[in-house]
Design brief:
6 helices, 4 strands, TIM Barrel, alpha/beta, 139 residues, globular
Length: 139
């Protein structure tokens, strides 16, 4: 069986910056992507988009970025009873990674950030920390 993952909840976020810088896409952007990504101030738009995508056959919903939108993850999960994927984007990862490196926060902050997604109702988490966590769990 093939399942359809909806990218319905993608906010026009400043947290994508490190990825865009790494791949050099900033210089090619013709707009700020706000014409097709959601305004971070608007939570009701995400619910409308999820409802439309479910009506069109979506089986799973992705919320991107994740941490600034834990409330949206919870709202989608509670409103639709559908699997919700949280995507921890490059900016979220970078903030935590630099915080640990500069001893502003400890390494447990990594796991804490991921557990927050689960508490909000995420069924799965996409994160740049995936390999690091997998290695830790393996040992």
């Amino acid at each position: 069986m093939v399942q359809i993952l909806s990218y319905a909840v993608k906010y026009a976020s400043n947290f994508y910056g490190p990825f865009r810088d790494a791949v050099g896409s900033n210089k090619f952007l013709k707009s700020d992507k706000k014409n097709y990504q959601m305004d971070f101030r608007n939570s009701s738009e995400s619910i409308r988009e999820v409802a439309l995508d479910i009506k069109e056959g979506a089986d799973l919903i992705m919320v991107k970025p994740g941490m600034p939108y834990l409330d949206i993850i919870k709202l989608v999960k509670d409103s639709f009873k559908i699997p919700v994927f949280a995507y921890q984007v490059s900016g979220e990862y970078s903030i935590i990674k630099l915080g640990v490196k500069n001893k502003l926060i400890n390494r447990e902050s990594i796991l804490e950030s991921l557990i927050s997604f689960k508490r909000a109702g995420a069924t799965a988490i996409v994160s740049y920390f995936a390999l690091e966590i997998a290695k830790k769990l393996k040992n």
